[in-house]
């Protein structure tokens, strides 16, 4: 042990003298093995990551879009009073779709993301009881589908959506959601070029992934896959 201590002291002195004398030739210390100790991550830190909420719906019938990709911006306007009937229609804003429709929306977002966009979901599956409440307020098929016939929203096969920037901020598309007038028509061409380009990008992307647009609403797209039944199911709200 005394010999080992002497060696270490001599080595330290040599190193100090080399540094103080400005000699840039450092001794080869690779011959002295150093044990690398890996840091231990406390179990407490790992346990602070919250688990995802439990699935509380029939996954054979429905997919909650946010579970496929947490970067979707969920801003369902009927969960607020910021809609054309100025009334809250959903107790909470959860975006559900039929599984095939949800996967198609995901594919559209994955195409848009490298271009600097996220999808903001304004409405998804709309339970038929909600369709009845809308109809009772505005019983006009020009604005609300008759719930006896139902709509693609009531089948979980339609989406209302828009483009958002990487931070989730809604982009200008020329009119707000649920604007009833020619300015909201996809064929309207008097908007600035930047707005027309965003509308074109959104529409062409959705169409490429199996959706079709309608004549009067730039935000509405219905999936063209196999038919789905009308549904009355209403989702639960987290406590």
Please, could you describe this protein's structure?
It is a single chain. By secondary structure, this protein is α+β, with helices and mostly antiparallel strands. The chain has a domain at 63-223: Muramoyl-pentapeptide Carboxypeptidase, domain 2 (2-Layer Sandwich), CATH 3.30.1380. Helices cover 28% and strands 11% of the residues. The protein contains six helices and seven strands; from the N terminus they run H-H-E-H-E-E-H-E-H-E-H-E-E. The protein has helices spanning 2-20, 43-47, 65-68, 99-112, 128-137, 193-208, and strands spanning 63-64, 73-74, 96-97, 118-123, 158-164, 211-213, 220-223. Strands 2-4-5-7-6 form a five-stranded mixed β-sheet, with helices on one face. A two-stranded antiparallel sheet has the order 1-3. Strand 6 (211-213) and strand 7 (220-223) form a beta hairpin. The longest helix is centred in the first third of the chain and has 19 residues, at 2-20. The relative contact order is 0.13.
């Amino acid at each position: 042990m005394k010999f080992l201590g002497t060696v270490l002291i001599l080595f330290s002195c040599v190193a100090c003298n080399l540094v103080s004398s400005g000699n840039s030739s450092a001794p080869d210390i690779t011959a002295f093995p150093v044990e690398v100790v890996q840091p231990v991550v406390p179990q407490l830190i790992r346990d602070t990551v919250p688990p995802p909420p439990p699935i509380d719906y029939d996954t054979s019938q429905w997919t909650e879009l946010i579970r496929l990709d947490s970067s979707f911006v969920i801003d369902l306007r009927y969960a607020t009073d910021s809609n054309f009937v100025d009334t809250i229609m959903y107790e909470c804003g959860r975006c559900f779709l039929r599984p095939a429709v949800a996967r198609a929306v995901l594919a559209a977002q994955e195409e848009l993301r490298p271009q600097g966009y996220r999808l903001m979901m304004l409405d998804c599956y709309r339970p038929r009881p909600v369709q009845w409440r809308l109809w009772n307020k505005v019983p006009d098929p020009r604005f609300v589908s008759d719930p006896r016939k139902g709509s693609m929203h009531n089948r979980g096969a339609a989406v209302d959506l828009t483009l958002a920037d990487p931070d989730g901020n809604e982009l200008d598309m020329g009119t707000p959601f649920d604007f009833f007038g020619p300015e909201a028509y996809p064929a309207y061409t008097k908007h600035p070029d930047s707005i027309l380009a965003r509308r074109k990008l959104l529409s062409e992307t959705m169409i490429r992934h199996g959706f079709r647009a309608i004549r009067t609403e730039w935000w509405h797209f219905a999936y063209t896959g196999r038919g789905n039944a009308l549904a009355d199911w209403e989702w639960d709200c987290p406590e």
